Amino acid sequence: MKKILMPVDGSPGCQEALQMAEDLAKKFDSTITAFYVFDMHRIPNELEYAGYIEKMYDTETKRDFLDKTVKYFEERGVKAESKMVKGDPASDIIDEAEKGEYDLVIMCTKGMSMGKRFLLGSVTNKVVHHITRPILIVR
């Protein structure tokens, strides 16, 4: 297991996934790719949301977050890199995992209620149901 894909979204609840990825990468001398996808399908179409759109697509802040994630791993002796794309998170995670020939995908789930998950779905849920690569979900 040499390549681990770790989709990240900046949510504070995913610390356990970082630790799990770190442990596995150390055991197998793997490289972790922190992967961020700008969700291009959530663009509000009301002018009043202009501030929200600006914040959502603040690439400098997202790049800084990815750099900090890579630094987190490197400070712990784990090889890491980052990649950022714009598109649909679930589809792009699946595409990256397949095309990049990753050995494992590690994702966290934010613990949505069952009703909310049923009505809205989640990126993790969509990925789990369509990916062909091994995936580890950390709750």
Written overview of the protein:
The chain has 139 residues and is α/β, with parallel strands linked by helices. It has one domain: 3-Layer(aba) Sandwich (Rossmann fold), CATH 3.40.50.620. It contains 6 helices and 5 strands. A 5-stranded parallel sheet has the order 3-2-1-4-5, with helices on both faces. Helix 1 (15-28) links the parallel strand 1 (3-7) and strand 2. The chain is globular and about 35 Å long. The two termini are 22 Å apart. The mean pLDDT is 83.
Question: Which labels suit this protein?
Answer:
6 helices, five-stranded parallel beta sheet, 5 strands, 23% strand, 139 residues, alpha/beta, single chain, Rossmann fold
**Mean model confidence by pLDDT:** 83
What is CATH's topology name?
Rossmann fold
The tally of strands reads 5
> What strand order characterises the main sheet?
3-2-1-4-5
* The CATH fourth-level homologous superfamily: HUPs
The radius of gyration over CA amounts to 15 Å
